[in-house]
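Narrative of accomplishments. A recurring question from our advisory board has been how the design workflow behaves on a single, concrete structure rather than in aggregate. To address it, we present the structure tokens for one chain from the evaluation set, followed by the sequence designed for it. No filtering or post-editing was applied between the two.
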């Protein structure tokens, strides 16, 4: 059920067992732990680096996600095709072709938000891996017409932010992130969303974004699937650590302590940890905050919740219903983009299929009682079109979007890296077989050049091209799966478009077991 042989070693913590072929399943330790070993495993490395080994490494240039193998995941479902008819288009072989599948999604209280594709990046915040790849992430997402969420802590992490009386009055990084998205946005598709945690709320980040930067969509954050504490990053600069301490963050060790300063300067440790506080959810405070944001001018208010216990998920669904939330994102355990405690990432929270199944059940319960329910987005380990299809079907008709972060970041990073190798004339053989210029390497280049024109195309970062091309693959793959199910609009996807491959998956999700699907229809067909 779990990744039993990796309990004491992982590429994520840059650790490994000495006896890789002989490992104790329960502990993950080498069968023979030898006096004299230098400590390559996680226990050994913890003996000399302590708390540093809690987190994935090297921080700032990686994303990380759980290695745990859960009892059920989306591979335990299969897409159900059919040879009969068509929905959303005329049942004509010349018309019911996969390029005709409509992936556009509209949602929000007035149906005023429109995406070209049914997915969203649900929150990329202040980590270096996000900041260093933002031009690609923003450009690719905006060109594709999907939503991009600016995650927590971006303002306070920016040394150039101007904060007066504990409120933000000017920024550099947040302005730039919004600008980079908007400069590539087309025809009103997509949205830039500004998220806030405890520290952001105290600083008035969302009010600033609404009033000064014209942001229309904001998101309240209860948490995420990767961890059940606030966000963390590492800081290798003493002055910045002290600045963040002054701005109200929990910074470990205390960067104003003379003994700590001396230890840092002498090289005893090389990085400070910056931690966010955990929020304290209560209905009154939630209702008041939603009202404050709308009064400030927010057109749409979202909520993101993590892999908390079922009662907390029920609160998220109920509060979203009561207070008119425009999108509720439900993020399952195991995912992650930045620095989450490694063991927590593996051993905490409700896994995605179980959490998403509960979200469907709770939402359906309210809908059947005549309550207005919030559109849902499912997140937690999605990367490809088959998983997107299954997530949309499992939560149909309430799920409108699938949240992804690691996959898009990876695509943007690869696109950026290819661009650098082109500039340096050092294209790897694996890539060079496709060509030596970006026009040859990126398969979407001709379409982008035609659509943008020569001047804009020349300015397009290769990171954005990488992400846009990844999205193009997802879109075509999803259209093919949907056409096979004869569903030509995402609005038409239903729970019986997938079937469970195990009894346990069927029991947890309420999706029919594969040999029991279509039972009533089968009886009618055979009764001739």
């Amino acid at each position: 059920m779990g990744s039993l042989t990796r309990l004491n070693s992982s590429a994520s913590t840059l650790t490994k067992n000495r006896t890789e072929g002989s490992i104790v399943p329960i502990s993950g330790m080498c069968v023979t732990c030898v006096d004299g070993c230098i400590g390559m495993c996680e226990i050994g490395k913890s003996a000399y680096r302590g708390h540093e080994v809690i987190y994935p490494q090297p921080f700032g240039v990686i994303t990380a996600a759980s290695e745990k193998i859960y009892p059920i995941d989306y591979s335990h479902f299969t897409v159900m095709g059919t040879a009969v008819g068509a929905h959303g288009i005329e049942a004509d072989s010349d018309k019911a072709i996969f390029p005709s599948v409509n992936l556009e999604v509209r949602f929000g209280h007035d149906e005023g938000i429109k995406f070209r594709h049914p997915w969203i990046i649900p929150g990329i915040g202040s980590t270096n891996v996000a900041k260093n790849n933002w031009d690609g992430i923003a450009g690719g997402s905006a060109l594709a017409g999907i939503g991009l969420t600016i995650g927590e802590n971006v303002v306070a992490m920016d040394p150039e932010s101007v904060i007066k009386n504990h409120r933000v009055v000017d920024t550099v990084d947040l302005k730039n992130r919004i600008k980079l998205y908007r400069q590539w946005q087309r025809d009103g598709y997509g949205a830039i969303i500004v998220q806030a945690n405890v520290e952001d709320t105290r600083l008035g980040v969302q009010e600033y974004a609404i009033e000064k930067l014209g942001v229309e969509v904001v998101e309240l954050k209860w948490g995420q699937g990767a961890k059940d504490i606030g966000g963390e990053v590492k800081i290798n600069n003493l002055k910045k650590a002290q600045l963040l301490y002054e701005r109200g963050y929990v910074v470990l060790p205390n960067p104003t302590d003379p003994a700590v300063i001396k230890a840092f300067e002498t090289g005893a440790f090389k990085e400070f940890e910056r931690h966010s506080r955990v929020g304290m959810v209560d209905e009154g405070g939630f209702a008041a905050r939603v009202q404050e944001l709308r009064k400030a001018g927010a057109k749409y208010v979202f909520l993101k919740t993590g892999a908390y216990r079922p009662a907390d998920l029920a609160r998220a669904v109920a509060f979203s219903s009561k207070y008119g939330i425009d999108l509720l994102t439900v993020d399952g355990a195991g995912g992650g983009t930045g620095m989450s405690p490694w063991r927590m990432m593996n051993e905490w929270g409700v896994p995605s299929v179980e959490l998403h199944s509960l979200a469907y059940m709770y939402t359906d319960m309210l809908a059947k009682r005549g309550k207005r329910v919030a559109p849902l987005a499912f997140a937690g380990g999605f990367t490809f079109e088959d998983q997107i299809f299954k997530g949309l079907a499992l939560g149909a008709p309430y799920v409108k979007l699938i949240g992804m972060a690691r996959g898009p970041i990876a695509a943007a990073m690869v696109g950026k890296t290819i661009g650098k190798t082109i500039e340096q004339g050092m294209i790897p053989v694996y890539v060079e077989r496709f060509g030596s210029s970006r026009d040859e390497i990126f398969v979407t280049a001709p379409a982008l050049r035609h659509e943008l024109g020569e001047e804009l195309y020349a300015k397009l970062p290769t990171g954005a091209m990488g992400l846009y091309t990844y999205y193009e693959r997802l879109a075509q793959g999803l259209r093919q799966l949907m056409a096979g199910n004869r569903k030509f609009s995402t609005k038409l996807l239903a729970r019986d478009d997938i079937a469970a491959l195990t009894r346990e998956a069927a029991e947890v999700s309420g999706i029919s077991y594969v040999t029991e699907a279509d039972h009533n229809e089968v009886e009618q067909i055979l009764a001739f």
